[in-house]
Design brief:
about 30% helix; globular
Length: about 200
């Protein structure tokens, strides 16, 4: 589903990634791990198109998307939950979710994320900026799911979240992988790429 080959990425004159190769098969869950500053977020941002590749190639679902814009990649089925969530703080939870519907046109219903994260239902009218870190992460994941991605990438999905909410998010991710293979009555594959998952011990 995703094939990255010989990927080089730089910030100006400072090269960060050299010759990265990565393959993710349909239905597979992959966890990228490593200390701060080794380029995990850079790799995800390049995959979604927020950073340009200096060299190499990114193939997704049989297409070379190396030069595609981020919105075109999203419409093709690449979903992304960034580190820090990056929700719209002055919009309500419902408005944040509906923002995801504007560009994809794949669904008009908010049922899927609200079923996965029932804690969001009573918060639909609340501003995103006043939510807890865990609630914001649920919102960010729910927003990404509304684009009906074939590939879902999450950057540090449990960073700064209390252990009980981490377990809830982990369970939701397991359900996404195990259950959400049906879209419009047809089987579809959903991959989850997690970066530095923090486990409660």
């Amino acid at each position: 589903m995703l094939s990255i080959s010989s990927l080089d990425v730089a910030y100006g004159q400072s090269q960060v990634l050299w010759g990265v190769d990565l393959e993710v098969r349909a239905g597979e869950l992959v966890c990228l791990m490593g200390r701060n500053g080794v380029g995990k977020t850079t790799l995800l941002k390049t995959t979604i198109g927020l950073l340009p590749a200096r060299g190499g190639r990114v193939m997704f679902d049989g297409s070379d998307i190396t030069t595609w814009s981020p919105d075109r990649r999203a419409r093709a089925g690449v979903g992304y939950v960034p580190q820090g969530r990056e929700i719209f703080p002055h919009l309500s939870v419902e408005e944040n979710l509906r923002m995801a519907l504007l560009g994809c046109g794949r669904t008009a219903s908010l049922d899927e994320p609200l079923t996965l994260f029932p804690a969001l239902k009573p918060l639909l009218a609340r501003k995103g900026g006043v939510l807890s870190g865990g609630e914001q992460q649920m919102l960010a994941i729910g927003r990404a799911l509304l684009t009906k991605p074939k590939l879902l990438m999450l950057d540090e999905p449990t960073e700064g979240i209390q252990p009980s909410i981490i377990l809830e998010i982990e369970e939701a991710l397991r359900r996404i992988k195990a259950e959400l293979k049906l879209a419009s009555g047809e089987t579809r594959n959903l991959k989850i790429e997690m970066v530095r998952q923090h486990l409660a011990v």
